[in-house]
Amino acid sequence: MQGHGGLADSFLSSPLWQPLSRLSYSVYIWHMFTLEVNSRILRTNTYFSNYNFMLNCWSVIGITIWMSYVLYVIIEAPFGGLDSPLRTQQPRAPSEQKQSSVDVQQDQLNDGRNLDEPEEPKKEATTTVSE
Hints:
This protein is mainly alpha-helical. It is built from four helices and no strands. Helix 2 crosses helix 3 (about 50-80). The longest helix is centred in the middle third of the chain and has 30 residues, at about 50-80.
């Protein structure tokens, strides 16, 4: 559905969001892992300050995005097209196939005759004279 979002639709449909959308789930998973590692590394009490908090936040975000990108390049990108050979399309029956616009135009040009059925030879009309 397009055309109903206005400014929000055009902003969120921007191609600038595509790299983030490819990494979003991986960022979520690695973010949890990075937070867990950072919390378990500390062995002593630390002094809390705004600077330390911001340093910790930005380092976690940077490490998370870096790990997500590396694993995307190593795992997801090469195996991304692997499912297409598994999804082979089975041939459909002729009754299920849709006619293209060219086929429809050809049918209209043939004076309403159905070209799928064999044409029966026309019998000549014979007149008999009754006596």
